[in-house]
Amino acid sequence: MRRTALVLFLACIAAAQTGLKPGRKYAAAERLAPERLAAVREARERLAAARKTLPDVGVYEDIPAVMHVHAEDSPHTLGKREEVLAAAKKAGIRAVFFSDHGGPHASTWHGERDGVLFFAGAENGGRHELVFPRPAPPLRFHSHVEGDLEASPEGWDGMEIYNRHADHEDDADLIGHLKQVSRSPEKLAALADLVRRYPDEVYGAGADYWPEIFARWDRVLASRFFTGIGANDAHQNAIVGGKVLLDPYEVAFRNTVTHILAREFTHEALARSLREGRAYVSHDWLCDPRGFAFFAVNTLGVYEMGDTIPMAGSTRLVARAPVAARWRFVREGAVVHEATGDTVTWQAAEPGAYRVEAWLEIDGEQRPWIYSNAIRLARPEASALTLPSQQLDAGVEAVNDLEYTAGAPEDADKHRLDIYRPRGAQRRPVLFFVHGGAWVRGDRKQYPFFGNRFAREGYVVVVPSYRLAPKHPHPAQIEDVADAFAWTVRHIAEYGGDPQRIFVAGHSAGGHLVALLAANGKWLRQRGLSEASIRGVISMSGVPDVTGEAGARVFGNDPEVRRDASPLFHVRPGLPPFLVTYCQWDYLTLPQQARRLHEALRKAGVRSELVFVPGENHISEMTSIGKPGDPTAAALLRFLGGMQ
Fold first, then answer.
1. Mean pLDDT for the chain?
2. Which residue among 3, 246, 471, 517 is the one 20 to 30 A from 108 at the CA level?
3. pLDDT exceeding 90 applies to what percent of the chain?
4. Percent helix, strand and coil across the chain, each to the nearest 5
């Protein structure tokens, strides 16, 4: 870390002394020297060898896209659509945004072709505008440095924070050097050889960092989300001496990529993500950035680029990449934190718009690699943290503190359950609900709102407590849940419930426990029951796999014990139907775990429904369940109704 900081410091001194931009040690002409190009190639190869494959974060898929691509607007690009498609596939690009001058033209592609999604758009240079008219409403990005954008950002969706073509044209040293080369057949031949051997390194020699553009962007971000995109501005017209092409589509596409985070691979989903700021810009040629994530974490959940996170308790900003980088955390134009590593965490104390930059040490220089879009931290409104009402409707009654098993006297209250039922209930379907709290906290007394919500829909709702870790490590929790369930089967008819129609549901740790109860049959068999006792299973933001190190606190250090405690590894044919949910701002790994459980169930032939809950975090997924029109409650009622 010290060495990297020293290199950055010395590079900044050199930049100040020579007029070079931040991070640079060499002028463009020096960067084109064979030994420099070879050193850059070697550095890239080291990064590729060190690169880690990282698990996903959050609910979005990383879609590499190239924006501001020309293919129909001039003689040197006319009819190049097939070349663009071939180059996109070679470069790993999945979406191409055409922006031809005066376009989109009648022949401009719009739609999916051979796995690549095309957008037809136009560049209106007089208005410094990129516009993509489909899907409606149009996407509009400011495309040039000039103008008073920050004074009037309304009507724009964002701006180019980097333009490769403009960067090339702005470098007087590079342009002067290439003009000299073009006048000498020998130098032109030598350049052609370098381009053949080092195509990405030669084209990347002209890449720079533009502080003035980021300053303008940060001024807009101070008041609103404003999506930053990277522009290839790919023309295939960087030609030296009429013979040496520096910017073939494939090279240009690798050079500057806008990675869009989207839930679906459709025009509508990608456009929505761009409007919301769910994207980052990367110079992919330096190192494949996939696995990069910038997110904020607190007790409510995990929030990503384009999100506003309420600052409840301690809020941490986390930047992660597949290789170690030099990170700069920027808040509204000011660098508030710098660090080196593949994962960097910083606790934010002030609200505002935050973004990060990742820089790589390449041949003694600091080169910009990744530019994130912003996450906004905000002081939460009091209403956002208000717990739901615990008052019962007039038609709902509670029966409290029923003992479901005997145990140590000090654990007596954890061996009790509460029942919520419609007044006069007889043979009503039963919803057995297990609370969350990471197996270490929580109690049935926090959930009258849940019991009331489903009792008024006609269900008899059973809510048990259970012993908590670490005082009572696994298997205390599942033993208690199994005992409470067995009591319910044998006694619920006395309280108006139908023992032949019992559904089990749980949230978070509770989602893990009900899934384990149904999937690992030993807990039911030990109590004279089988999975046939369960009509259906609802796991809300559950944890089906506890084999990771984080599970050791509750489940111990033995990997076999943790595997046995993981419902995912007990999935088999014959299990009852499942409803598996996760939410937009869920805790780390829970969206991925939900999808894995759903896929395993479907593969085993078990009926499973996977539901994504937008606009909720891990906590509000539960606390909002009593609100009119709540999507989680609607999904549960739909599932329960379909199983009776």
1. 92
2. 246
3. 77
4. 35, 30, 35
Per-residue pLDDT of 379-405, as tens digits, reads 887 555 567 889 999 999 999 999 999
Give the pair of three-digit tokens for residue 276.
């919301």
Domain 396-642 in CATH 3.40.50.1820? The answer is yes
Question: ω before 544 within 30° of 0 (cis)?
Answer: no
The pLDDT of 287-293, averaged and rounded, is: 98
The residue type of 310 is P
Residue 482's closest CA among 438, 541, 529? 529
Of the candidates 205, 216, 260, the residue with the CA atom closest to the CA atom of residue 238: 205
Does pLDDT of 469 surpass 80? yes
Q: What are the extents of the domains in the chain? A: 21-286, 396-642
* pTM of this structure: 0.92
Tens-place pLDDT, residues 60-71? 999 999 999 988
Bond preceding residue 475 cis, omega within 30 of 0: yes
| H or E stretch at 49 | helix 34-50
Question: How do residues 415-459 score in pLDDT, each as one tens digit?
Answer: 999 999 999 999 999 999 999 999 999 999 999 999 999 999 999
Predicted confidence at residue 8, as pLDDT, reads 44
- The residues annotated with a catalytic role in the active site are 508, 586, 618
3-state secondary structure 282-320: ECCCCCCCCCCEEEEEECCEEEECCCEEECCCCCEEEEE
How many CA within 13 A on the CB side of residue 546?
30
Rounded distance, CA 511 to CA 442, Å? 14
Q: How far apart are CA 604 and CA 387, in angstroms?
A: 39
Cα gap 561→431, rounded to integer Å? 29
Torsion of CA 592, 604, 561, 513, to 10 degrees: 70
Alpha helices in 183-281 (DSSP H): 185-197, 199-204, 211-221, 249-255, 267-276
Which token pair is 592? Answer: 């991925």
State the Cα–Cα distance between residues 337 and 323, nearest whole angstrom: 19
Question: Would you say residue 9 has pLDDT above 60?
Answer: no
pLDDT in tens, 368-383: 999 999 999 998 875 5
Give dist(CA 273, CA 60) in Å, integer. Answer: 10
Residue 436 phi, psi (nearest 5): -95, -160
Query: Residue 222 corresponds to which amino acid?
Result: A
Q: CATH classification of 21-286, choosing from 3.20.20, 3.90.1310, 3.40.50, 3.30.360?
A: 3.20.20
Report the C-alpha gap between 481 and 466 in whole angstroms: 7
Rounded CA-CA distance 89/92 in Å is 5
CB atoms within 10 A of CB 88: 26
